Known about the structure:
Layout: H1 3-21, E1 26-28, E2 31-33, E3 37-45, E4 53-59, E5 67-68, E6 76-90, E7 94-110, E8 115-123, E9 131-133, E10 136-140, E11 145-148, E12 160-164, E13 175-177, H2 190-216, H3 224-250
Parallel strand pairs: 2-12
Antiparallel strand pairs: 1-3, 3-8, 4-7, 4-10, 5-8, 6-7, 6-13, 9-12, 10-11
Amino acid sequence: MSRRRVALVAxxxxxxxxxxxxxxxxxxxxxxxxxxxxxxxxxVPNEEPNASTVRVAVQIPDSVLxxxxxxxxxxxxxxxxxxxxxxxLVGDRRVVEERITVVTWSGGEITGSNSQSFALRLAVPRxxxxxxxxxxxxxYSDDQVVEWIGEPGSENPAPLLTVTPFDPSAPSxxxxxxxxxxxxxxxxxxxxxxxxxxxxxxxxxxxxTTAVQASDEDDDGVSVPLLVAxxxxxxxxxxxxxxxxxxxxxx
Length: 251
């Protein structure tokens, strides 16, 4: 084989191998609108021909307050958390008091020149124009650890996510400080209920008794039975008087 042909084969081989040799951690998509809910795929290549990737860990930037990790088949997920400075209300009902700081995938394997996609869902910060760096580590089966924490253009740059201006058509989720919880109204005690019921019953009984007493008395405070007795006595005396007068006339 001529030297020219050897050089040409070598050049072609270098071009083919270059993409694999320079593959980096990267997000797909790499740009997301501010204030949106981003569904991301973190592309992780295996760059060691004699070892497999067995662990991937990603640090979540401080400005990302809400993260969810969908399952990745064949991999286990672990997360680290830290308390928020103040609770957040996510949507209309969910109150969040912690944020995820680190996501770790393990238990799977990326072999040869293959790559693996790991899903993330997160709330994008409100400020557009910023670039978020997700520092990461990649652990191989031979215990080698590669840190993807460098600046863009370095040998091992951190995966980046660029925040673009707000897009009203993009899916979003309201996240705001949670309002102070109002203390729940205590249920009325049984004692109070019974007391109120008894008082109402006593008041009703008193009212009914008063009404009966009022109907049994006249305006001068004389009871009805006494008036009836007096009337009967007067009628009896009157009848006796008439009877005596009738006997005298007959005699």
